[in-house]
Design brief:
By secondary structure, the chain is α+β, with helices and mostly antiparallel strands. Helix content is 35%, strand content 21%. The chain has helices at residues 29-37, 39-46, 59-78, 83-87, 100-104, 157-173, 216-227, 240-252, and strands at residues 7-8, 11-12, 25-28, 92-94, 110-114, 119-123, 127-131, 136-144, 181-189, 202-210. Strands 4-7-8-9-10 form a 5-stranded mixed sheet. Strands 3-6-5 form a 3-stranded mixed sheet. Helix 6 links the parallel strand 8 and strand 9.
Length: 253
C-alpha cells in the first residue's frame, strides 16, 4: 500500500489538531509564538493544515550557530567559563548534561506536558549555563550584520524575548531552578572592512535579558481554546499574511 501523501491540494494532512484525540498534542515553541502573533494563521496551520509560505534557510546564521556551539562545548568539556563570559562578568560555566544534544534537537528539544490542556510544549535551545549555586541560565545565539549598536529593541526582537521566556518556562517545568536572566550571544558580521578576502569577521557580544514567563501558561490555555473551536478566529490587524490574503481576495473579485 502506498504511503499516504502529506498534503491534499496543498493542505497538510499530518500533525493536525484533533479535538477528539486523547493523546497529547505536540506544540512547538515556534508554533506557540505563531499563536501569539496571529490566532487566525495559527488555527489555519494547526487545525486546517494551511501553512504560511515557507522562508528560505538563513544558512550563514546556521553556520554561526553551529560554530558557537562547538566553541562553547570545548569549554563545557573542560568545566570552565568561556573567555567571553569572563569579559562580561558572568560567574558561570557552560552546563554539562547528557541530554544537551536532545535539548538542542529541532525534532525533540526540551518538552513539558501542560496537563490542563494536554498540550506537549517543546523547544530547541542553543545553550545553557549554570552558576555556582546550580541555577541555570538560558542562552540563545543570534547573528546579524549591522553598523548600528546591537540591542534587543525592535518589534521583531520581541519574538526573541518570548522565545527566551518559553525556554525558561520549559526548564522550570522540568524541575530546574532557572535564573530570570538569560543571555543572547550576538555575533555581528562586520561590513566596514577594506575587503572580503574570503573571510567574514564578527564582533561577538553578550546581551543579558531579564525574562518573565508569567504569560506562557495563559497563552497555552488560550491556544487550546482556539484550537477546539470550529470557527476561524479573527485576523490580527498586524498580520502581514492575513493582509496579503485579504488584498488578494479583493483583487480577484
Amino acid at each position: 500500500m502506498a504511503t499516504m501523501a502529506k498534503t491534499i491540494q496543498g493542505r497538510r494532512i499530518k500533525n493536525l489538531f484533533n479535538p477528539k484525540a486523547e493523546e497529547p498534542y505536540a506544540l512547538s515553541r515556534s508554533k506557540l509564538d505563531d499563536f501569539f502573533r496571529c490566532e487566525r494563521c495559527f488555527y489555519m496551520d494547526r487545525r486546517l493544515g494551511v501553512e504560511k509560505p515557507s522562508m528560505p534557510g538563513f544558512t550563514l546564521n546556521i553556520a554561526v550557530d553551529a560554530l558557537l556551539k562547538k566553541e562553547f562545548d570545548i569549554h563545557r568539556a573542560k568545566g570552565e567559563a568561556h573567555p567571553l563570559m569572563k569579559t562580561y562578568g558572568i560567574d558561570a560555566v557552560p552546563y554539562r548534561d547528557e541530554r544537551l544534544e536532545e535539548w538542542r534537537s529541532n525534532f525533540r528539544g526540551i518538552r513539558a506536558l501542560h496537563e490542563p490542556t494536554n498540550l506537549l510544549i517543546s523547544g530547541a535551545i542553543d545553550d545553557i549555563w549554570v552558576d555556582r549555586e546550580g541555577k541555570v541560565m538560558i542562552v540563545d545565539y543570534k547573528a546579524t550584520s549591522t553598523l548600528a549598536e546591537v540591542t534587543l529593541e525592535g518589534e521583531y526582537k520581541e519574538g526573541y524575548k518570548r522565545q527566551m521566556e518559553i525556554y525558561q518556562w520549559l526548564f522550570r517545568q522540568n524541575g530546574f531552578t532557572v535564573s530570570d536572566t538569560g543571555y543572547f550571544v550576538y555575533a555581528n558580521g562586520q561590513k566596514d572592512r577594506a575587503a572580503f578576502d574570503a573571510r567574514l569577521e564578527f564582533d561577538v557580544q553578550i546581551i543579558p535579558y531579564k525574562g518573565n514567563d508569567g504569560w506562557v501558561e495563559d497563552a497555552i490555555i488560550r491556544a487550546k481554546e482556539v484550537l477546539i473551536k470550529d470557527t476561524l478566529p479573527e485576523s490580527s490587524p498586524t498580520c502581514e499574511h492575513c493582509a496579503y490574503r485579504g488584498a488578494a481576495r479583493a483583487v480577484e473579485k
